[in-house]
Structures are given as C-alpha cells and as structure tokens.
Amino acid sequence: MQFWKMHGLGNDFIIIDNRDGKIADAEAGDLARRLCERNLSVGADGLLMISNSSMADMKMRVFNSDGSEAEMCGNGVRCFAKYCYENHIIKKTEFVVDTLAGSKKVWLAVKNDDVEAVKVDMGVPEWERRRIPMLGESTCVDCDLRVAETNYKVTCLSMGNPHCVILVDNVDEFPIERIGPIIESHESFPNRTNVEFVQILGRDKLKVRVWERGCGETLACGTGACASAAAANRLGRVSTIVKVHLKGGQLLVELAEHVLMTGPAEKVFEGKLF
Question: Which residues are catalytic?
Fold first, then answer.
C-alpha cells in the first residue's frame, strides 16, 4: 500500500489513495491509530483517505490519530488537493472536494507542475449551538464556561467541525496542556470540541495555539485558524483579512460571504506499507 507523508504548517498527515476500497470502513479507525503512532510507525496527526465521490471531484475522509473520524480538516484538505493534482488524479487547478462537512472548493497555485499553495472555501461559520453541536439555546458568543473551577469567556462555532475560542493575553504562557483536554471533553460539547487559544496582535493579526480534538496540541489547524479569525471578528477585535500565526507558520484568512483560507502544503516523503 503506497502512501505519502505530508504536512500543512507542521500539521502532518499520511495520505492513502483508497479509491479501490482496499481499506474497509470498519478498518479505517484502527489503521489510523496504528499508522499515526510516532514511536512505532509512520507517525502523524491524522490519516487522510482518497475516495470516489458522486457529489464532487473527489472525497476526503479524515481520521485523527486516536482513530476517530473528523468532519473536516483545513490543513488536510490543502495536502489532499496537492496529492490529487501531483498524482494526476485530478488535473485541474480548481476543483471540489467532498467532505463530511460538505463540499469544499479549492484553488491551486501551481508552478512547474508543483502545487505551492492552496486556497480553500471553508464555507460559512455556524453560530447556533445546536449546529456546533453545543448544549444550550441560541449562540455562545463571549459566554462563561466553567472549567477547573475557573470561568473562561468563550466563543463557540462550527467550521464544519466544532470549535471553542478563548482570547488570552499571552498565548505562549497559557497552560493549554492542562486546560485544552478538559474543554475538549467538556459536558457542553456532545461530540467533543477543538479549542483555540487566541492572542490579538493587531486588527489584522492573531497568534493562535490549538488543542485539536482527538490529537492534542498540533503545530497548526486550518479550521481552527478560520474559527479564531471568525470569532475575533465577531467580537470586534479584528478586520476581515487576518494573518493567523500558528506554531508551524502562517495562514491567511479572509472573512467575506464565505471564509477563505490560503496556505501551503508540503510533501515530506512517500513510502510503502507492508
């Protein structure tokens, strides 16, 4: 079984072409757990599988390192698009990817047949709690959330997957290793949640650390960057074009009718599984 190891700003993935269905649905979660183990296998934050789609040009399935399936992955979809183009699965610089969070259009910046960057239409943020999902009524914008005997002001939304955004004064000093997993599994989130810790650097700049559901802290999260920008904008703290600085690098997020995210995707190596 051939695979590529790829990353988007250090958020890394194993990508397998599964158009022939060689990996059964019942096997995918366990395979992700085994392959993503950094000490004993290839190692990655997640497994991406390419499948055929009747709704779009190709379908992307995302499995976290703990074996759970995610609805969407912003860094993953950029890697997915690069893989499909450079392996001649799709020979267009604009195409649509089917995900559990709906269809996502991508635009590829190509030079000498290499994909250097990918812009993704991430869709429209969902603010209603029931659409996140989150317990309670209406929306959760700058609301109190009780965590480890402390109240945190949180803004929650879905970018196809659930996010809980917290503004902090100094993101580097914030104890996300302690607070992140508590919020991820907080009773308010029936399907768990991703958690973003966000420092405002200016009207067009954010610094973000992300505790990803099913992975822990990662070097970057595309949906998390979009959720952070959307939440900060709704709170009146940033404008509509935002540079999001993550541990692994920078993403550009544009807040218009839809949220647009632009960033790189890199191939690390390719190999064969036995």
Answer: 73, 221
